[in-house]
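Late entry, evening session. Most of the bench is empty. Finally got around to the prediction I had been postponing all week. Sequence below, unchanged from the version circulated by S.P.
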Amino acid sequence: MNTVTTPQGDISTVRLIYILYLVSFIAGITAIIGVVMAYVNKDDAEPWIQSHYQFLINTFWKALLLSLISMALMTIVIGFITIFLVFLWVIIRCVKGLKYVDQRQVHPDPTGWGF
């Protein structure tokens, strides 16, 4: 993995967005603020940080899609299980993303569905 040095402000912004996503389980609007911040900052960032912004943007849209599907499935009860799995999926993605940021590494799969 590539390890690089970057101004602390760029790293702090990426960390903040990951934290906003995690806080969104309590105050949902923070995820929207986070994705807007990712879109605003992604073009001016260094390539390794751009991979995190892309990962965060994809996480937002995929989580939204999966949440909407889960809400529709709540009419047949299975949605309560799938929404829990979506929450767990987002938490794991954010924690692993924060780990890569702390190690100053490129996210290995910013557009994938995995962690």
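Two things to note before I forget:
The chain has four helices and no strands.
Residues 48 and 106 are 4 Å apart (CA to CA).
Will write this up properly tomorrow.
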